Amino acid sequence: MNRIFSAALAAALLSIPLASHAAGIAPREPYGIALEGFAYPYPVHLLPLVNDGEQLSMAYMDVAPAQPNGRTVVLLHGRNFPSSYWAPVIKMLGEAGFRVVVPDQIGFGKSSKPAGELHFDNLARNTMALLDHLNIDKAEFVAHSLGGMLGVRIARAYPDRVAHLVLTAPIGLEDYRLVVPPTPTDKMIETEDRLTAEGYRKQLQTNYAIKLPGEAITPFIDARFNIKGSPDYPRWLRAFVSSGQMIYREPVAHEIPLITVPTLFVMGSDDHNAPGRPLAPEALRAKMGQNAELAKTLVTKMPNARAEVIPDTGHLVFLEAPEKYRELVLGFLGR
After folding, report:
1. CA distance 58 to 130
2. Per-residue pLDDT of the chain (335 residues; tens, 9 = 90+)
3. 225-237: b or e for each residue (b if 16 or more CB lie within 10 Å)?
C-alpha cells in the first residue's frame, strides 16, 4: 500500500506539465531548446559561464528550507531527466533543514546546449563555479544516474568541497569501452532521431526497470519529444548525443576506489541499466549492468563507503521507494 501511495505521489509531482495531453486537446506548442514551456517546481535562475570559449548559461534552482540547519545539498541529475524530477527529494531535504541547490548541467534541461563537446571536467568546474557564485564552500552531493559519474569526478577533483557523496543508481560503475565498440557521432544522431515517443517509453521501461505508473514517466518523454518541433532541435540532438559520447569516452569506474569522502551507494535491485548494451557482442550483453553487485564490490576497495540495495526497485530509486530512500539518505547525512 505504501508503494502504491508513493508511486501515486511521485506521479502527481511529476505530472505538472501534462494538462494539454488530455483527450481531445490539440498538442501543445513545441518546447524551446531550454525547455521553455516545461514547468519546474521552483524558480529557475541562470548563471553565465564560459566553456571552451563559448558563452553559456547554467540553469539552477536554489531552494531555502523553512528551518535551516546551515548545510547545503547539491543534486546532480541523470542524462534522460530534467532536474524537475528531483521535486520529492527537494521537499524531503528541505523539511530536514537543508538548503537545496539543483542545477541543470550544461547541455541538459533549461541550461544552454553548447556547440562544442561535453566533458565531465567542464561540468565539474561549472558546478564549482555555481557554488562560488552562491558563496557555498562545502556541500553534500546527491547524484543520480549520469550525475553519479559527475559526482565521482567532483569528489576526486574537489574533495575539500564535498562533505558526503550519495550515488543513487549511478551508471559508470564499469568501463563500457571494454565491451561496447565505439560509435560515430553521426550514427548516434541518426539512431536517436529515428526514435519515437512510444519507442522511448518502452526504452525507459525496459532499460530502467521502472516501477512507476506510465503517467509518471510521461513528463520525461515530453521533455525530450516536444523539442522535436523546435527549430533548435538539431542543436539539442547533437548536445544529447554528445552526453552519450561523454559517458562512453570518459569512464570514471577506475576513479571510484580513489574517492576519500564518505560515500553511500543506493542501488535498485532490478536496475541493470548499461549504456550501449545493444551495441555490445550478444554473448557479453547479459554480463553488463550488474550494478548492485558492482557497487558492493567497489565499496570494498574504498576507504569510507557502503552500499545499500533496495529490493524490487529499478533505476528511479528515489521515486520508486521514497520512504526507504529518505531513511538511508538522511541517516547518512547525519540527521
Report:
1. 8
2. 444 434 444 444 444 443 333 334 445 578 999 999 999 999 999 999 999 999 999 999 999 999 999 999 999 999 999 999 999 999 999 999 999 999 999 999 999 999 999 999 999 999 999 999 999 999 999 999 999 999 999 999 999 999 999 999 999 999 999 999 999 999 999 999 999 999 999 999 989 999 999 899 999 999 999 999 889 999 999 999 999 999 999 999 999 999 999 999 999 999 999 999 999 999 999 999 999 999 999 999 999 999 999 999 999 999 999 999 999 999 999 96
3. bbbeebeebebbb
Residue in 152, 158, 157, 159 with CA at minimum distance from that of residue 247: 152
**CB-CB contact of 288 with 280 (8 Å):** yes
Q: Which three cell numbers stand for residue 250?
A: 570518459
Q: Is the pTM of this model over 0.85?
A: yes
Locate 68 and state its grid cell: 535551516
**Strand positions, DSSP E, 238-323:** 263-268, 305-310
Helix (H), strand (E) at residue 228: none
162: which strand partners?
139
Q: Which amino acid is at 224?
A: R
Q: Which helix (H) or strand (E) element contains residue 197?
A: helix 197-208
Q: Which three three-digit cell numbers place residue 79?
A: 542524462
Closest CA to 142 of 159, 173, 165, 122: 165
By DSSP bridging, strand 45-51 and strand 54-63 are antiparallel
Compute how many other C-beta atoms are within 10 angstroms of the C-beta atom of residue 316. Answer: 28
Per DSSP, which regions of the chain are E strands?
A: 45-51, 54-63, 72-76, 99-103, 139-144, 162-168, 263-268, 305-310
Q: Is 302 helix (H, G, I), strand (E, B) or coil?
A: coil
What does residue 74 show for φ and ψ, rounded to 5 degrees? -105, 130
